[in-house]
Amino acid sequence: MAMKMDRMAEAMSNGHVALRVEGVYVDVYASGQVRAVAVDEELAPRGARLGTLIADLINKAREQAQAQVAESVRAVQADPRIAGIIEQVGDAPERSLPAPAAVDDPWDDDDDPFRRRSRIAAPDW
């Protein structure tokens, strides 16, 4: 379960896809943030088509990165242990916190080893 959760967190934070078509290379995070764009001047098409090609590659890379993240989430959600935890937690953020347990404090000030005691002071019984 921990491994699945780690993979999901990694995918959500760093999931990206790189695509290369006709001399254009793009690398895009699942969030849609473009990580890199590179154009091979010898292979890349010229003119207005280049902008469309880059935009299409970015969109395809983003969709693939999002699909990878979604697969990681599905893998975690499919784990019956996670489903049990979700069922137990339910509406926990909407519920009020339980009262803290009362703890009987056995500490007595006379037990303090650092408290200075006078040899001549009267006892405070």
Automatic annotation (TrEMBL):
<protein>
    <submittedName>
        <fullName>DUF1131 domain-containing protein</fullName>
    </submittedName>
</protein>
<dbReference type="Pfam" id="PF02575">
    <property type="entry name" value="YbaB_DNA_bd"/>
</dbReference>
<dbReference type="InterPro" id="IPR036894">
    <property type="entry name" value="YbaB-like_sf"/>
</dbReference>
<dbReference type="InterPro" id="IPR004401">
    <property type="entry name" value="YbaB/EbfC"/>
</dbReference>
<feature type="region of interest" description="Disordered">
    <location>
        <begin position="89"/>
        <end position="125"/>
    </location>
</feature>
